[in-house]
Amino acid sequence: MEDNFSIIRFSLFTKSYAGFRIATFIKNSQENKILIKNLSHVLLFDEKQLKCFILHKTCIKRFNKIRILDPEIAEKIAVYTKIEKELIILSQEKSNKSDFAEEYEYGEGLLSPAIERVAGNSLENIKDDYKFEEKIPDQINKYRNWYYEIAYKYGLPTLRIVPFLLRVIISNCQPLVSKTSP
User: Fold this and answer.
1) Residues with Cβ < 8 Å from 126, sequence gap 6 or more?
2) Could you tell me the residue ranges of all domains in the chain?
3) Which 3 state secondary structure label does DSSP give 7?
4) What is the pLDDT of residues 22-76, one digit of tens each?
């Protein structure tokens, strides 16, 4: 059970906005090996798996499949991953548009639209606008609850935590500083 939990947790991280942002930051850093080590300590992930995920494009496929036996949890995880995918898409769209990205980079500025998109897509079979408008608020609330439930259950960082995580792993890069420096 614990192995399966760890596998699911890591796989979800690799599909998350937090995983995307942190991996992008580490790939572009000269101290990527130390940052990966620090991140593995902070998030309690296997360092080799993190290195594979962040530095090797071919390894990403290894983490794509999540096998969940409980259909209720599987549905919630599917919604969680769809929301995370939308967060990545929205962040890329926003970063192409001036200062709007800086203002709304973290927090509700991206999460609410991501949840709305996923909830709206789930109701695509409803053709009547009135029925759609009637059902969308409940679907948004349900998906927001599921999102946080999965994030909490698997100890996954949400987008508001990303800046904090980056500061923590950067501040722990002390091994790069020479001991002879004043």
Assistant:
1) 132, 135
2) 2-176
3) helix
4) 999 999 999 999 999 999 999 999 999 999 999 987 776 777 777 787 899 999 9
Q: Could you tell me the sign of the dihedral formed by the alpha carbons of 106, 112, 118, 121, in that order?
A: negative
d(CA 145, CA 80): 10
3-state SS string for 32-75: HHHHHHHHHHHHCCCHHHHHHHHHCHHHHHHHCCCCCCCHHHHH
Q: What is the pTM of this model?
A: 0.85
Nearest to 23 by CA among 126, 149, 136, 162: 162
Find the Cα–Cα–Cα–Cα dihedral 36, 39, 44, 46, rounded to 10°.
-10
How far, in Å, CA of 102 to CA of 89, rounded?
15
Q: Cβ(13)–Cβ(156) under 8 Å?
A: yes
Type and span of the H or E element at 23: helix 17-27
Surface-to-core class of residue 136, CB atoms within 10 Å of its CB (0-12 exposed, 13-18 middle, 19+ buried): middle
Q: Which helix (H) or strand (E) holds 134?
A: helix 129-153
Q: b or e along 149-168 (b: 16 or more beta carbons within 10 Å of the residue's beta carbon)?
A: ebbebbebbbbeebeebbee
